[in-house]
Amino acid sequence: MLPLLTGSAWTAVTASAVVVALAPSTAPSGSTVAEPAASPSLASHTWHLGPGDSWAGAIRRASAGDVIELASGRYPTQSLAGISGKHVVIHGASRSGTVVQGIYLNDSNGITFSNFTATSPATGSASALRVTNDSHDLTFDQLTVLPTNDPAGRSGFDVYSNSGSTLPPYRITLSNSLVDASASSGTASRGVRIWGGDFAESTWPHDITIHHDEIRGADGDIIQIGGARNVTVADNLLHDPHENSDHNDGIQSYGSRNLVITGNRIWAAGAQGGPDQGIIIGASAGATYLKVNQTKIENNLVVGWRGQGICIAGADYTLVRQNTVVDNGGSSLVISAAGSVHDTRLSVSNNILDRIERADTLQLAYEDYNLLTPLAGATGRGKHTVVADPRFAELTNYTLQPTSPAIGRGSASTGVRWDYAGTARATADIGARQHGTGSPAASTMAWGNTYGR
To answer: What's the CA gap between 3 and 187, in Å, rounded?
Structure first.
């Protein structure tokens, strides 16, 4: 967890959050969409819209800081092109009762969307939320996102650059939201997809933040990054992609620069040892521009995942530090390659791991101050690496007992100054959790510790 979140409360998303009450539209079929009238409410800067009103018209009339409130009901797909929102907020009257059948943003900016449910459009293959072509300064907060089939392969949240466009989307945030992709099938189904493709990095989407969300149930990856710069994936609950013949990962990047993966809880029940990874990064073999450079993977809890925990396969300049990756169906850390592309400048330190699998036997740039459990007869490299039982206090949040050998055995110079819960590290403990810290509110979730101790 990032330090700026210290003390903030996590509100667990319960199953009731995805029960959608579809109120009938007030606009009869075939009717003319009306421009909204000025709000008669006492709040002079609030506009009230119903399902038959024009979002674009309301945004154009609004002033900076205005709120556009959506009444409960079912809204058709909203395509906003060339709209400057001047930092307006579009807010649903009811998170479950205000339902929008897809939002498509093209060359639009300055809007916050909050407190409603977004589903897939009635027709076409677009995702429930799609941002493209020079759209920027957009925030999606406290939403329920439910992509569905017909056709298959729809994603929940899609940030997309049009095949080498010189005007990619940027400064986009998804926060405090639920993305449940359980009803979308096909290998193209993702919870979140950020895509710039095999084109020059200058054309990739950039400055994207996925923060404090629960994302679950995709038929492909929970989060997939295929060409993006300056992406932060922080403090999320990522879990249970569907099992099928593909490798469905918690987070996959096959093209990124300056990617930070921090403070996430990642788990998935299912058959042990399958093709799925909790986190996997590495170049796309044979691609020209789809490389992975400058990645930080830190303070994550990858536990109860059905396959491998973390896999690094052909990435440059990667820091893997202060993670707890145990009780999974495969190796905790896999060091591999993408065809002829090997890992370079890979540093692994201050992690609690069950086992390191060296599919590629290269010597890492730095490897030390890790704790490897003795469950699989693990051996580690580095004179400060410990092989011992980490002595977890409990197996929900993987806090440490006062007698844990992980306490004070890490390196402050190669670690992170705060832990998974956002607590400052008074001592250099190994793993994602600093000893003596309480469990975050998220401990009320059912974590699914399936494979371990």
So the answer is: 36
Q: Check if the beta carbon of residue 298 is closer than 8 Å to that of residue 262.
A: yes
338-350 burial by CB neighbour count: b if 16+ within 10 A, else e? Answer: beebbbeebbbbb
Structure tokens at 248: 């469905």
d(CA 355, CA 196): 34
Q: Among residues of the chain, what percentage have pLDDT more than 90?
A: 66
The DSSP element (H or E) to which 46 belongs, if any, is strand 46-49
CA 397, CA 390: separation in Å to the nearest integer? 13
- Please check whether residue 10 is in contact with residue 440, taking contact to mean a CB–CB distance below 8 angstroms: yes
For 3, the token pair is: 């330090």
Sign of CA dihedral 234, 239, 242, 247: positive
pLDDT of residue 145 exceeding 90: yes
Q: Tens of pLDDT along 364-398? A: 889 999 999 987 566 678 899 999 999 999 998 89
The model's confidence at residue 433, banded by pLDDT at 50, 70 and 90, is: very high
Q: Decide yes or no: CATH 2.160.20.10 for domain 123-439.
A: yes
**Taking a C-beta distance cutoff of 8 angstroms, is the pair 49, 33 a contact?**
no
Q: Which residues contact 226 (CB under 8 A, 6 or more apart)?
A: 193, 194, 195, 196, 197, 253, 254, 255, 284, 290
Q: How far apart are alpha carbons 429 and 434 in whole angstroms? A: 6
Q: What is the DSSP string of 328-365?
A: -SS-SEEEEEETTEE-EEEEEES-EES-EEESS-PPPS
| DSSP strand pairing (333-338 vs 341-342) | antiparallel
Q: Which of 173, 34, 57, 166 is nearest to 107 (CA)?
A: 166
Residue of 52 and 21 predicted with greater confidence: 52
Taking the C-alpha atoms of residue 191 and residue 268, their distance in angstroms, rounded to an integer, is 14
> What is the spatial distance between Cα 217 and Cα 239, in angstroms, rounded to a whole number?
7
Q: Evaluate if residue 453 carries a pLDDT over 80.
A: no
| Exposed / middle / buried, residue 245 (Cβ in 10 Å: 0-12, 13-18, 19+) | exposed
Compute CA 86 distance to the chain's CA centroid, rounded to the nearest angstrom: 27
- Give the helix, strand, coil percentages of the chain, each rounded to 5: 5, 40, 55
Query: What is the torsional sign of CA 308, 313, 315, 319?
Result: positive
Average pLDDT of every residue of the chain: 85
Instruction: Please state the rounded mean pLDDT for residues 306-321.
Output: 95
DSSP run (H or E) holding 57: helix 55-61
What's the alpha-carbon Rg for the chain, to the nearest Å? 22
Q: CB count, 10 Å around CB of 201? A: 18
- Integer angstrom CA distances of residue 10 from 176, 369, 425, 449: 9, 31, 21, 21
